[in-house]
Every structure is written in C-alpha cells, then in structure tokens.
Amino acid sequence: MTLGNRNLSAGLLDRQEEPPALVLNGDGRSPYVLICEHASNRVPRRLGTLGLAAAELERHIAWDLGAEQVARRLSRLTDAPLVLQRYSRLVYDCNRPPDSSDAMPEVSETTAIPGNGSLLPADRLARIGEIYRPFHATVAELLDRRAAAGVRSLVVSIHSFTPVYKGERRTVELGILCDRDRRLPERLMPCFATVDARYNEPYGPNDGVLHTLDLHAAPRGLAHAMIEIRNDFLTDERGQAGWAEQLAASFAHAAP
User: Fold this and answer.
1) Has residue 114 got a pLDDT over 60?
2) CB 8, CB 45: distance < 8 Å
3) Which end of the chain has the lower number of beta carbons within 10 A, N or C?
4) pLDDT over threshold 60, residue 7
5) β-strands 164-165, 174-177 pairing
6) Helices (H) and strands (E) in the chain, counts
7) β pairing state of 21-24 and 197-199
8) Dihedral sign for Cα atoms in the order 34, 36, 39, 42
9) Beta strands in 105-169 (DSSP E)
10) Within 10 A of 161 (CB to CB), how many other CB atoms are there?
11) How far is C-alpha 76 from the chain's CA centre?
12) What percent of the chain has pLDDT over 90?
C-alpha cells in the first residue's frame, strides 16, 4: 500500500499514462452517445495505491464492475460512440462537480481512503485539471461535433451498483435514472417488463448522481438517461453480453 508522491509540481499524470478519456467509435452513426464515467480502477502512478490494499481497488468503491464491458458491447451492437473514463472514481469521480465532497472522497461507503485525506488545494487542482476537465471536454467536443453535422444525440450513461450497500441488500435489478426530462426513460422502461426495473433507484437526482447528464445533455436539450445495472449480473461475459443485448433492443424501441 502506498500513498504515492503528493508533490505534484510536475503534474499528476506522466507521459506514459493514458489520457483520462478514451473515445471508441467516435464516428458511430447511432443517435445514441454512451458515457461510462466509472469504467476503470486505474490510479496514476504518482498516487501509488491511495494507501489502499490492492484488493480494495478491485471493489465497487473503486469502479463500476462490469460497466465498461457492457458499454463496449452496447457500442458495437448499436454503432454508438462511447466515452470511457480511464481512472478510478477514488482519484476523481467524473460524475461529480469539483465542489462535491464525493469528487475526491475521504471515505467511500465505509472505507477510508488514506490518499484522499487532507488534500492540499494544489492536489485537488491537479486532479481537476488533469482528469475531470479533459474528460468532460472530450464529451462536449463529441456532442458539439455531432451537432455541427446535424446529428441530434440521445445521451446515456452506463453504470453498475453493488447488491449490498452499507449492509442493506438491494432487490432492484435495473435503475433508470432521470430528473425533469423523462422523455427517454419513459420510452426505455416498458422494454424491461421481465426485470425488476425502477425509476431513480438505487440512486436519484437528489443524490447528485446526474452531474454528467446535467452538464452535457440537459443544457443542449438532449433526451438522456442514466442506466444502473446490479453488478452481480455482470460477473462474467455471458451476463455482460445479455444486458448489452437487452439494452440494445430497448434503444431500438426508444429511438424516435
């Protein structure tokens, strides 16, 4: 377990590390644009392991298990562009604004994150400047480029959630999250009649989880939704493929 070098005068990410955003199928012709903010559990080398054991970085606190695999399959099935975030949400949760305490959490669920304790303003600014802002600039550029080409996008973010949270078991299987704009969620929901699917569970807009959609889709007037899949369904390729196929079918039904 290492906290890593907290002197970030040379920057957070070194030249050999991945940029914070990876765009797949950027010229895809689907009306859908997919975003996966919690795709990776990677930590920049200069931060070590944030003071955590390696096993902790494999847990849901560090990333959305199975979400990237579902998003990649869904992108291929629907020919949709996909933006993946390449660093752990424990380093910076790109689905939170910089002034949120959850953006660089000192505690995630019930686990203390030593590498996030007592961060200096320079530490926070390095993470904001090198992870949060480039990631969202990539999303904005993709949507702007599609708009300039006359393509009106439907924006969907792909997430997974743990079946047990702080000792409480969750029975919901699929959450379709939304705030005031319910156009897309209400077209998607009827496609999941055989699934325990619910609006705004296990999280909702009051939990601050719609930041990415509020930042990019809502101001542009684009229909949007956040998808949450319970991650015990995503532990193998069969489960990941099955959910990607269900979502692809619902997308076809819901597209205008």
Assistant:
1) yes
2) no
3) C
4) no
5) unpaired
6) 6, 11
7) unpaired
8) positive
9) 107-108, 111-112, 154-161, 164-165, 168-169
10) 21
11) 18
12) 93
